[in-house]
User: Fold this.
Amino acid sequence: MIDTTALFHELFQKTRFITKEVNEKLKQYDLYSSQWSIIYCLKTLGPSTQTDIWRYLNVEAPTVTRTITRLEKSGWVIRMEGNDKRERIIQLTEKANELIPQLEETVKAFEREMIGNLSDDEQQELLRLIKKMGANERS
Assistant:
């Protein structure tokens, strides 16, 4: 049987490395990976509530609120009133929509670099295995 501690240690180490490298690549846009995650979420889902965002990203609500505040101050997102006074809808700005293609290419170039040693079949298998991990926990 595999040493699960070693397996998860390797996963954590690789995740930290990826985050560090993505942060380095995003410096030119004055962004961090956590901010990119929210931008990508909004690009994918469209305008969303903060609740939708933190649930989608599986992070704590205060973390998302702080990150959205930073994105708003730097002109990447705007907050609009939702269905009631407390709800806020977060939407990408025109600036964000104009820069997203460049951002995506920067991130995709890094991703291609990261998986360059894997065949197409290995990439598909890795994706399948990652999705399978903990799947019974989410049901």
